[in-house]
Amino acid sequence: MAGSQFTRGNASPIHLGIIGLVHDHVREFLPILLRRRDILLVGIVETNTELAAEIAQRFGLSGKLFFPSIEALRAKTSVEAVAAFTSTFDHRQVVEICAPLGIHVMMEKPMAVNTGDAQAMAAAARKGGIKVVVNYETSWYPGTHRAYELVHQQRAIGELRKLVIHDGHSGPAPICSKYFLDWLTDPVLNGGGALMDFGCYGADLATWFMEGKRPTSVLAVTHQLQPAVYPKVEDEATIILTYPQAQAIIQASWNWPYGRKDLEIYGERGALRLPDRTALFLRQGDAPERRSSVPAMPRPYADSLSHLAAVIREQVQPMGLGSLEINLIVNEILDAAKESARTGRRIDFVGDVYPQIHPLS
């Protein structure tokens, strides 16, 4: 039932469950999972019977694979880990149920709808001794990792000064299923709109490139440019993060005429431009921009399933971009951005919290 690659010796396949089918990324995830041999799909939890039947028919899945709850899945299978494709709001419940059962969890980004939920999830994971991985598409971009190496190991552009991160597309309404749209455009179930959906990528990358440092302040503005389509959430957001010697500008949008996940990195002596997942251009000083080689990622870091399998087998730790530590800060940034947009004020981080709200000056 599951299919191909990256098994170590005679290691048994990881027994994986899927929790929820309302996140459309599961429709891309399932065909890949079913082709693997190192990971075996042992069950799916989905209470919406109409959706479960649709997915079963589309991917030729047996009805015996479907369960009404995580507890029922655990009772009938030897599930070791789950991939969550629920609403973001439900991530906390998934972790809090799985942690005492010793079931590892990978979830689609972002980690949580707010910092309180993120902290509760981290506490449950640590108490239960489970691994939690937050899956961002950009975690598996070879260009992203090559850029990190050039910035932090080779010091190719000098001290980091600015990141400009663009993430978004023309909006989810024309391309997403009704099941996905129902919660993605809900301020409770998603925590917001484009700010959460695409702003999380920028917050994740900025925190990683800043080596896990929290920003000193967050300033954000949002717009609702398509109120008839997205009446309850923002569809446009710009977030500015300040650090003692650097800035990050995050542009998240449901209004671009094309999909994009690109990145610009500026240092004291040069710059990097990453227009897509594999292309990287380096400019040093006034010299012309030149393309830099981007090697393929080694297998434990090449894709989410290979990484999850290696994490469960304790061959590697959760990679920075998907780690609890980085994503706790991501949620702090997203909370501060929402508060800044709501109040029109800068949010200053003080110590381990960010309670101070300052007017623009």
Please compute the radius of gyration using only Cα atoms: 20 Å
What gross morphology would you assign? globular
| Spatial order of the strands forming the largest sheet | 14-13-12-11-7-10-9-8-15-16
Please state the average pLDDT score.
Answer: 94
Q: Which class do the helix and strand fractions yield?
A: alpha/beta
Report on the structure:
- There is one protein chain.
- Helix content is 32%, strand content 25%.
- It has 361 residues and is α/β, with parallel strands linked by helices.
- The termini are far apart.
Lay out the secondary structure.
Blueprint: E1 14-19, H1 26-34, E2 39-45, H2 49-59, E3 66-67, H3 70-76, E4 81-84, H4 91-101, E5 104-108, H5 115-128, E6 132-135, H6 142-153, E7 160-168, H7 178-184, H8 194-197, H9 199-209, E8 217-223, E9 236-243, E10 246-253, E11 260-267, E12 270-274, E13 281-284, E14 290-291, H10 304-312, H11 324-343, E15 346-350, E16 353-358
Parallel strand pairs: 1-2, 1-4, 2-3, 4-5, 5-6, 7-10
Antiparallel strand pairs: 7-11, 8-9, 8-15, 9-10, 11-12, 12-13, 13-14, 15-16
Helix pairs in contact: 4-5, 5-11, 9-11
